[in-house]
């Protein structure tokens, strides 16, 4: 197996213990104003512990659920603040499920949608309301409308190698997609057109992974020469 392929596979592995990125509901809420799309996606590790995210235990599942709900509430509180409303933000935000009956003028927040019914509700609601998705699961090219109806406004993906965090791919709209090393070095930025898988909001990780792999190798070689 090539080094690059190993890095790509490990980027979503449960071997990693911690992730330095701290989700910010206020920063995520701010992206609502720089976007105009009906569906606004936010995707990031809900827990700092990658092991907890991947161990499949009931306790970890509850931790993830609580973390997602806490984040969603923070986004809603920020969007409904007096300052936000003065900026043209929604006067009312509500959590939604596949059973929600949409009401005009409300921005809905759907936490961790995963089923056909969830996505059907999201697509039908987006015809009249804006919908924010927090850590959507089980997505495919047919589950969500493609851009320009939807947008990934807030994103963070840890990339690891040999159980070690080597960098992060982030996107906080309207800023570009950015790959950064753990030392804070920006390796490259991309626009949506340059990095997204066609007809989706999912980034193609091959470019960021290769850059981090090359940077990791350079640093390792330099360290051995000292």
Give the terminus-to-terminus CA distance.
29 Å
- Give the proportion of residues in helices: 25-40%
- Counting helices, strands and paired strands, the structural category is alpha/beta
Report the total helices.
Answer: 8
Low-pLDDT regions: 1-17
Radius of gyration: 18 Å
Strands ordered across the widest β-sheet: 2-3-4-1-5-6-7-8
Quaternary organization: single chain
| Gross geometry | globular
Describe this structure in words.
Mean pLDDT is 88; it is low at 1-17. Helix content is 35%, strand content 21%. The protein has one domain (3-225). It has eight helices and eight strands. It is α/β, with parallel strands linked by helices and 226 residues long. Helix 1 (3-10) packs across helix 8. It has an eight-stranded mixed β-sheet, with helices on both faces.
Compose a concise summary of this entry.
By secondary structure, the chain is an alpha/beta fold. It contains eight helices and eight strands; from the N terminus they run H-H-E-H-H-H-E-E-H-E-E-E-E-E-H-H.
Give the topology, please:
Elements: H1 3-10, H2 25-30, E1 39-43, H3 50-54, H4 58-79, H5 82-86, E2 93-95, E3 107-111, H6 116-125, E4 131-134, E5 150-161, E6 164-172, E7 177-181, E8 186-190, H7 192-195, H8 206-225
Parallel strand pairs: 1-4, 1-5, 2-3, 3-4
Antiparallel strand pairs: 5-6, 6-7, 7-8
Helix pairs in contact: 1-8
Question: What descriptors fit this protein?
Answer:
single chain; 226 residues; alpha/beta; 8 helices; 8 strands; 21% strand; globular
């Amino acid at each position: 197996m090539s080094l690059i392929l190993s890095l790509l596979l490990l980027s979503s592995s449960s071997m990693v213990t911690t992730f330095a990125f701290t989700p910010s509901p206020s920063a995520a809420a701010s992206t609502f104003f720089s976007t105009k799309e009906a569906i606004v996606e936010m995707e990031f590790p809900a827990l700092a512990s990658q092991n907890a995210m991947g161990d499949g235990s009931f306790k970890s599942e509850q931790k993830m659920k609580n973390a997602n709900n806490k984040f969603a509430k923070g986004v809603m509180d920020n969007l409904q603040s007096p300052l936000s409303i003065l900026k043209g933000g929604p006067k009312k935000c509500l959590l939604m499920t596949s059973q929600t009956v949409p009401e005009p003028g409300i921005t809905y927040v759907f936490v961790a949608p995963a089923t056909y019914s969830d996505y059907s509700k999201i697509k039908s609601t987006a015809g009249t309301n804006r919908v924010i998705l927090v850590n959507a699961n089980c997505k495919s090219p047919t589950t969500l409308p493609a851009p320009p109806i939807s947008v990934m406004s807030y994103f963070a993906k840890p990339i690891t190698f040999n159980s070690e965090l080597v960098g992060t791919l982030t996107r906080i709209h309207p800023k570009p997609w950015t790959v950064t090393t753990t030392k804070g070095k920006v390796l490259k930025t991309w626009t949506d057109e340059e990095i997204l898988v066609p007809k989706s909001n999912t980034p193609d990780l091959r470019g960021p992974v290769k850059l981090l792999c090359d940077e990791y190798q350079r640093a390792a070689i330099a360290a051995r020469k000292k």
